Amino acid sequence: MKKTILYIAIVLFIAIVTVAGTYAYIFSTIESTNNAVSTDTSLIDIIYTGGNEISGILNLVSSKEEGKNTTVTIKLSEQSVDAEADMYIKINTIDADIATEALNWECHRTHNNQTNITSGTFNGKTNGDKIYIDTDYRLSTTDTYYTIYIWLDGNKIGNEALGAEFDAYIGAEAVHITELK
């Protein structure tokens, strides 16, 4: 009987701690309307507008402009504390035949008419992988535009890529800046 009471007390304690921790974690609110997301954690308030999911069969092309692309925007709201963002490509599906150096990505970050370009490949990537395309970017209250191009370079791969499927989306992670860099 004493063991049963002890077990019940332990389970209740764990339940109370879990509920309190969950409440504290979800105290922030998330609103989503037409692919626009705004988070308010009473500390960081970011406005992120997502682009289209990048998916489908990729054709063999010779330039990024012939491939697939999407644009997302991110900024701080006026009442937010300073924050940095990491932008990434989250791969939902990638056929092994195209997970090579022939499948390329290029990211154009534009803010206040200045553009920064980063690029890479999907070589060796698998379903569920994240590719960070921009890290530790200090956000401001004006829009930063990210245009991401994904293309399958026909000069680097042959017919084995025909019909291969790809599905990914662009995401963001943000952190509060606790000290000036």
Q: What would a concise description of this structure say?
A:
The protein is mainly β and 181 residues long.
Any chance you could write out the topology, listing elements then pairs?
Layout: H1 2-25, E1 29-33, E2 36-40, E3 45-49, E4 54-57, E5 60-61, E6 68-76, E7 83-94, E8 103-111, E9 114-121, E10 130-138, E11 144-153, E12 165-176
Parallel strand pairs: 5-11
Antiparallel strand pairs: 1-2, 2-3, 3-6, 4-12, 6-11, 7-10, 7-12, 8-9, 8-11
Summarize the structure in words:
It is a single chain. By secondary structure, the chain is mostly beta strands. 13% of the residues lie in helices and 50% in strands. It has 1 helix and 12 strands. The strands form 2 sheets. Strands 1, 2, 3, 5, 6, 8, 9 and 11 form an 8-stranded mixed sheet that branches. A 4-stranded antiparallel sheet has the order 4-12-7-10, with no helix packed on it. About 8% of the residues have low confidence.
Keywords:
181 residues; mainly beta; 8-stranded mixed beta sheet; 4-stranded antiparallel beta sheet; 12 strands; 13% helix; flat
Determine Rg (CA atoms, Å).
21 Å
Quaternary structure type: single chain
Strand content: over 45%
Largest sheet: 8 strands, mixed
- Number of DSSP helices? 1
Distance between the termini: 59 Å
Structural class by SSE content:
mainly beta
Mean pLDDT: 83
- Name the overall outline: flat
Q: Could you give the order of the helices and strands?
A: HEEEEEEEEEEEE
Please tally the β strands and state the result: 12
Unreliable stretches, pLDDT < 50, 5 or more residues?
A: 21-34
User: What share of the residues lie within helices?
Assistant: 10-25%
